[in-house]
Amino acid sequence: MEPNWLWVPLTLFAALMQSVRTAAQKQLNQRMSTMGTTYVRSLFGLPVLLVFLGCATLYTGLGAPDFKPAFVLHTAGGALTQVLATALLIHLFRLKNFAVGTMLTKTDLVLTALIGTLLFTERVSPLGWVAILVVMGGVTLMLLGKIGAAAFGSRGAALSELLLGRPAQVALACALLFSLSYLFLRAATLELGEQHHFLWRAGWTVVLATTMQTVCLGLWLARSEPAVLRQMWPVRGIASFIGLTSALGSIGWYSAFALQNASYVRAVGQIEAVFTLTISWLYFREKITALELMGIALTVAGVLMFRLV
Q: What residues does each domain of the chain span?
């Protein structure tokens, strides 16, 4: 029986790996297209995930699952919604006032809890709701500190335009799809049977989902951006690093999903914003504002509350 708090360090590790991977992707994106940079994490990360699956299988002594339709469909739903959400997020960066949109994508914290409670098997306690809202408040403060007045446009755009305009619509759709992806993947791990070891359930789910994404996105790139596939060999060093950190992060995320509600995991995972700010400060020499420091403190406080949930 795994400790009921094990999902917390797993989530923190996953968030840290995702922050490091994002910083590396920021550099690679200067040499490759956005979709090509996105594809690298799946293509170069899949071999690492296969090794993890092999180790989990040997450790638990369990063989391959039955691949019941519910497991495959939930995994496919998670893989598909994750890719669509990522595509919308990329599109969001091309729109005006995308900073407001970025803030609205963080509504996935609340959406995951609401949709999970209504349509999935999520059970959120009163303290869990408080912790989720505290974390969301902290992340919002960090984002406001980062973007400052830019969120409202240089000409003082009307609040209704900002909240009801195209960027906001794209951001909310993005948040909805990300929320569904977390819930589908959590449900997929449960379909393998909660009586089985969480590492075995996480291993099969992450490998199947990543394989689906690698094949589908690879076929799309071969048709739409064939040059991207030829550009990968010269950048194999940083691409391998991105694949490794992405795979390690995925192992943490899926293992946590196998142990705990998706809404709790994603809320604790918002500590990634703190890691990202720290990396920006240490590596990119970017300044941290007072509002960002307040947001960091509030986010950390919210994360610590989940130790009591």
A: 7-305
151: DSSP letter: G
pLDDT tens per residue across span 105-133: 778 888 999 999 999 988 889 999 999 99
Q: Please give the structure tokens belonging to residue 235.
A: 């950048």
Which tens digits make up the pLDDT trace of 242-299?
Answer: 999 999 999 999 999 999 999 999 899 888 778 877 777 777 677 778 888 898 899 8
Cβ atoms of 269 and 306 closer than 8 Å: no
What's at 279, amino acid-wise? I
The CA-atom distances, in angstroms, between 124 and each of 11, 43, 132, 265 are: 18, 35, 10, 12
How far are the Cα atoms of 114, 123, 189 from residue 118, in angstroms, in the given order?
Answer: 6, 10, 19
Count of other CB atoms within 10 angstroms of residue 130: 13
Q: Tell me which residue of 240, 260, 271, 220 sits closest to 43, measured CA to CA.
A: 240
Cβ atoms within 10 A of the Cβ of 161, count?
15
